[in-house]
Every structure is written in structure tokens, then in C-alpha cells.
Amino acid sequence: MSVKSLTTSVSHLAVKRILGPFWKRRRWLDKTQWLSADELADLQFKLLKRVIHYAERNVPYYQCLMQHYGFSSEDIRSPGDIHLFPILTKKDVMEVGDDMISREFSKKLLHCAHTGGTTGMPLCVYRNFASIGDEHAFVRRQWDWAQVRFGDRCAYLRGGIIKNADAPQRRFYRYDPILKELHLSSYHLTPETIPVYIQAIEKYGVVALAGYPSAISCFARACLARKASLPMKAVLTSSEALTAPMSEEISRAFACPVYDFYGSAERVCYIFTCRHGCRHIQPEYGYTELIPVDGPGAGRCRVVATGFWNKAMPLIRYDTGDVVVKSNRLCACGRAFPVIEEVTGREGDVIRTPSGEEFGVTIMIHLLYVVCGAANVLETQFIQDALDHITVEYVPDTAFSADAFAAAQARFIRHLPSDIRVDFKRVRAVQRTSSGKIRPVLNLLPTATPERVPCLEAV
Ligand SMILES: [Zn+2]
Fold first, then answer.
1. How far, in Å, from the CA of 455 to the mean position of ligand 1?
2. Which of 124, 210, 234, 278 is the most exposed place for a label (fewest CB within 10 A)?
3. Are residue 12 and residue 110 in the same domain, yes or no?
């Protein structure tokens, strides 16, 4: 492990678990998960009032908005009064810019996290230091529910780039002995490379797997086809839609339960899976409103939520752009947390290369905007219009630089497999579905269905 990697790991550990409120929040969350529904409602209202009061005192946008509509935090006397605030969209946040940031912090000292998700519009969400420790305590709760302990070795198949994966020595993974994490490249899963991934997991004694459902299910199919035995304690998926066939396949391949985790960089709503397979909204994390999409009483709802923990950029009534199917079930686990049947809003097509690799929306957005540094784009859509070709349509914003974007395009093309051609196309608006949603990855090939991926079945 190089000195640079060691320093990075230690600083990640320090920020997430040692210097901030991680342990305090973790102990608190251990207790609050067993509160009654009434106690949770009281707690939520207290946290909601706190964030509104804070925004009123510190965030220029909310000061202006509350003045404009003629109300103050004192007028919030019940959770229903949150309707005094209009729903906030990602486009609104982008247009408001720095006035969304709390004056308590210097922008230079804040952490910027890029969103991608289902809307295809990248946004920088600023986070303060303490909120990172709080956040990590919530994330560990999902690992606790999956019975994966500190010290258990975990492998990740997410959007990170593995150094030297494309160099002649072809290294597809990186192991971090400090964090006990094996990072595997999601960009190089092919029939030829699968044995290397299996060997790495065996070599490091990995007991849990986490990452994007598209990458993990691809890997699961390859393991099943090879009859490779890789038993795990748990698999944790996030960031993309996990369909029932994908979950069943993953569970079969790794002989363990699959825990799907829903969240976003905006940090307003978390949904975790308990060991009874129920997806629970985490009520101490934010105030979540489920707004029926198809009229009152319908099951499909838009997720609009207010996060409780990020002081740097409080988001009140933020429209996540995601759709869930709600449930009135009570879960056998004994928690009074609300239950969701499924998260449907993140379903998207995947890009498939002729050699059998596949990339979901999270990877494509991460690659273009975080890894390759594209910026000042309002909307993006990746369209697979031939087996070996994709068109990336984009809508520039006012600060767009053609030269900077061309450089990012070149890097993006270099990172993708060489058997797929890419063209970029500037458009006035990307295509919407009939309900007005953007599908950031649009696969127009007739054989493309998420449950029947031929890529690795012939291994
Ligand atoms: Zn439960």
C-alpha cells in the first residue's frame, strides 16, 4: 500500500468514524429504532422544527422565501405546516446556487458531493464536516441490519476507477487493509476477467459484497455459470433499481440475503431493508412526504423529503425525482418505521457493449461528471441506438465551456471499452417519458431487458 493510499484511508476513517459525531449518533440510533410510532412522530417534529429554524437564521434562500410568503419558523406548529414551503426541485437548487449554502460555513471548507441519480442533471451538494459522521452512523445501521460487523472484509462493485485497470498489467482491484475494503472495477466485468475477481474475493476473505445491482447481478450470473462457491454474510445493493429476479439470482449466487438500500447525495431520505425483507423509511434521517402520483389513495408516490443533518445546505421539501410504492404493512421486525413495497423510480436501461459489459445509470453519470470532469450541463441522456454505439445527448447551461466539455468527452471515450463508439449531441432538451421523467439511460435495442442479460451466460 502506497503512502498516499494509506493517508487517504486513514483520513477517511478519521472523518467518518473518529473525529465527528459518529459513535454518539450510532448509540442514539441503536435506541431510537425501537421507539413507538408516537414517539417517532414527536422526535421527527422536533428535528423538523430544528432544521427549519436553522435555515431561517442562516440560509439566504430560505430567509428570502419565508419573507416572500410571509411566514416564520414559529408558524410551523405541526408537521402538516411544512406545506407552507413550496416543493424544491433539483433545477431550483441549481438556479439558486450559493444562496442555498448556510452562512455559518465557508464554502471552501465544505465537501462537495455530486448527484446523478435518475434525473441526469449533475448537482453539487455541499456537506459540513459533522454531517459526514452522522451520515456514516446511519449507513452503518444498514450494515448492522445485514449483520455485517466492523472488521468484516467487504468487496465493492461501484463506480470508482481502479488505477492501472487499463494499463498493460491489467489490475482490476485494490485492497485497503485499513478499511478492510476490496474495491473491484465495475468497468471490466467480462467472461475473461471474472476468474480474477473470484480469486481476489477468495484471497482477501471477503464476507460481504456491496455495490450497484447491475454490476453485482452480472457478477452473480457469472459465478452461477461457473458454479463458483462464494458464500457471503450479505449483499448490499444501492443506487439503481433492484428487480426481484436480480435479487433472487444474487441471493442464489452468494447464498445469502440481499439488502437493498435507497439514498441519494442530497441526503434527505434513506430506505433500508431489514432482515425480514421489508424496506423501511428511516424516520430519524429526514421528514419524508409520499405524494401520490396517480391521484389520492394510489400506491405509487413521489418521494419529497427534508433532511435533518446537513447544515451546510439544508433541503426542505426536496423532490428526489424518485417514485416508490407505499405499503401499510407492519413489519415483523418490531420497528414502527414506515414500510415501502418497492422503489420504482430508479429503474433505467443499461448500456451493453458487444463484449458483454454493462453499465447502469449511476456508473455512466459518475464516469462522465466525477471521473472525467464534465461540468455546466443541465441534462444528460445516454442512448444506446446500436449494438456498438451510444449517443450522449446533453443540454448546456449558461456557464458551459465547449473546450472543457470536449476534453471531458475525450476522457469519457477513453474510459469506455473500445468496442463501443460514442457520439455527443447538443440538444435543447433530452427526451421525457409521458409522465415527464427523464430516463438518463435509454436502451433502444429490442433485446435489452434487465432480467435477461446474455453477457455472461456463456461463460
Ligand atoms: Zn422490518
1. 35
2. 124
3. yes
281 C-alpha to center of ligand 1: Å?
10
Residue 179 placed within a domain: yes
Could you tell me the distance, in angstroms and rounded to a whole number, from the CA of residue 234 to the centre of ligand 1? 16
CA 319 – ligand 1 centroid, Å: 25
What is the pLDDT at residue 119?
54
The three-state secondary structure class of 455 is coil
Give the residue from 55, 41, 3, 5 showing the smallest Cα distance to 317: 55
Give the other-Cβ count within 10 Å of 451's Cβ: 11
Beta bridge pairs of residue 446: none
Nearest to 153 by CA among 199, 203, 207, 197: 207
Q: Is residue 380 part of a domain?
A: yes
Give the per-residue pLDDT at 156: 95
In a domain, 456, yes or no: no
324/175 Cα distance (integer angstroms): 36
Contact of 441 with 349, CB cutoff 8 Å: yes
Ligand 1 midpoint to CA 39 (Å): 17
Three-state secondary-structure class, residue 37: helix
Domain span at residue 388?
351-443
How many angstroms does the Cα of residue 260 sit away from the middle of ligand 1?
A: 13
Nearest to 448 by CA among 367, 359, 324: 359
Q: Determine the pLDDT at residue 167.
A: 67
* Residues in the chain, pLDDT under 70: 1, 15, 116-121, 164-169, 297-298, 345-349, 362, 432-438, 447-459
Please, where are the H alpha helices in 207-280?
213-226, 244-254
Query: What is residue 93's three-state secondary structure?
Result: helix
Distance 342 CA to ligand 1 centre (A): 14
Q: What pLDDT was estimated at residue 298?
A: 64
Residue 268: what pLDDT?
96
Q: How far apart are CA 252 and CA 219, in angstroms?
A: 12
Quick one: how far is CA 425 from the chain centroid?
26
